[in-house]
Amino acid sequence: MLNKCASINSGGQGSCEEIKHMIQIYTDWANYYLEQHKSKRKITDLSVDARDGLLLAEIIEAVTKVKVPNLIKKPKTQQQTKEEKSQTKTTLQIIVSLRLMKTNMKDQ
């Protein structure tokens, strides 16, 4: 974790302890939503676990109540794993775009 702090903190923003604290807050936040969503999975290391497209999709679904479409729950090939990560990323981008549009519409 200290090496991660050094690479993350190369911009000089915050101490390693502050970064660890923020990561723990986000880990707890995600685990709370996973628990509410009745997921059997739990995040132990956010920097590693967030790379798992299926876990990221579960978090997206738990927080937003929006299903990630065409998700391959048990990918059997490397290509399916790649597609699952891509689909999760696309869904997250769509959700963010919709939220931004909704916010902009309220401002008008």
Automatic annotation (TrEMBL):
Signal peptide: none annotated. It comes from the Eukaryota. Residues 24-104 form the Calponin-homology (CH) domain. This is CLUMA_CG001361, isoform A.
